[in-house]
Design brief:
Radius of gyration: 30 Å
Distance between the termini: 48 Å
Strand content: 25-35%
Largest sheet: 6 strands, antiparallel
Order of helices and strands: HEEEEEEEHHHEEEEEH
Helix content: 40-55%
């Protein structure tokens, strides 16, 4: 009789454990279904709202003139250095005017250059970042509230695609293009100024994080008898004095480099929006991974 009772007791424990496991499984399944049905869409809506704000920053209208983009003037200079001063006009992704004063190192003579009236310079970094934001928004709008996610993998796939676009958008603003000095010398930017830039001055504009940067290079020609140590510089965002290059059979050396910059507040906003959005995507992926043990019982 004792043995019979022990056997019955063991069976009851096993049955209870089995029932408990089934109840836990049903509870996890309900929780996971709620996540797929409700919370995922709440996060997608939040992401869309944030990224619409980011997209709006790239195309701020002129107050009272909805059809035209707002023009903003930025003064670039340094209180400790007056060799280069500039006033740049930014309208969306385009520099529509640039007014630059350069003090020549040897003579202290000031040279003045401005964009020709028929010219403006597209800042490719801003254009690319805006395109990536729009692509992220398209991905999010392709899954509206009526769409039913069936698996965690499906949500992860969407989050990965959105995060890729946001990372690319951020990287375009945080990583300026590297250029060789001959590439800079033959760039279309050199042909945009009046009076034309002299052969011993080069300029470059780029975005670094939330800053609009202007770099001015002053050059001197290397005489044929001094070129035995000639070593052309590679590709870089910012070249240093002493960097050498050759163009049209003439060898040059950079004698002076001046960099001035200023913060563009709305670029700072967009970088904050990218960070918040990437965190939201990652948090949703983390919540889904909590259920990974449950996916052993159900196709992922």
């Amino acid at each position: 009789k004792k043995l019979h009772d022990q056997c019955m007791s063991t069976k009851t424990i096993k049955t209870n454990k089995s029932t408990q496991r089934q109840t836990e499984q049903v509870s996890i399944e309900e929780e996971f279904n709620w996540l797929l049905k409700e919370e995922v869409h709440a996060v997608l809506k939040q992401l869309q709202d944030i990224l619409k704000e980011a997209a709006r920053r790239f195309s701020m209208p002129t107050p009272g003139l909805e059809g035209t983009l707002k023009q903003e003037n930025f003064i670039l200079g340094s209180s400790t250095m007056d060799q280069v001063k500039g006033v740049l006009t930014l309208q969306g992704e385009a520099l529509t005017q640039a007014d630059i004063n350069i003090k020549v190192a040897k003579s202290s003579q000031v040279m003045h250059f401005a964009f020709r009236d028929d010219k403006q310079w597209k800042l490719q970094q801003i254009q690319d970042a805006r395109n990536h934001v729009n692509q992220a928004l398209q991905l999010l709008s392709s899954r509206d509230e009526s769409y039913q996610f069936k698996t965690g993998a499906e949500v992860n796939k969407l989050m990965d695609a959105v995060m890729l676009q946001l990372s690319r958008a951020r990287n375009r603003l945080t990583t300026p293009a590297t250029l060789t000095l001959p590439e800079l010398a033959s760039s279309g930017l050199m042909k945009m100024f009046t009076p034309p830039m002299p052969g011993d001055v080069m300029v470059n504009f780029y975005i670094n994080l939330s800053k609009l940067c202007l770099t001015v290079y002053q050059l001197h020609v290397l005489q044929p008898n001094t070129t035995k140590n000639f070593k052309p510089a590679g590709s870089s965002v910012l070249h240093n004095p002493g960097a050498m290059f050759e163009i049209n059979n003439t060898k040059f050396e950079v004698s002076h480099v001046h960099k001035v910059e200023c913060v563009v507040p709305w670029l700072n906003d967009t970088l904050v929006f990218f960070t918040i959005s990437l965190q939201l995507c990652q948090q949703l992926k983390d919540k889904i991974s909590v259920f990974s043990s449950f996916w052993n019982y159900r196709p992922f």
